[in-house]
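User: Predict the structure for this protein chain, please.
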Amino acid sequence: MRLLTGVLLTVIATTSVSWAADNNPGKTVAQSKCVSCHQPADWQGETERGLSALIRDVASGKVKHSKFQVQLSEAEIADLTAYWLSGKK
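Assistant: Here is the predicted structure, written as structure tokens:
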């Protein structure tokens, strides 16, 4: 039983951000802050880790955003990443 519990905890702890994040709030964030310039197809081929890091860097100002400064919480970054990678419009 301890082994099963340990395995389950490991799986839960290493699960991807997109599994934990919700696509619906991601769509809301995208619609309010991103879709004037970006579409889901813009991120085709990106990894979750790479896209999340890029969005985080843009939000922190580390990467210059062409239009305006984007402020996002960690939860919004996770939700937005999940939405963009889902490919939904």
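The two ends are 43 Å apart (CA to CA).
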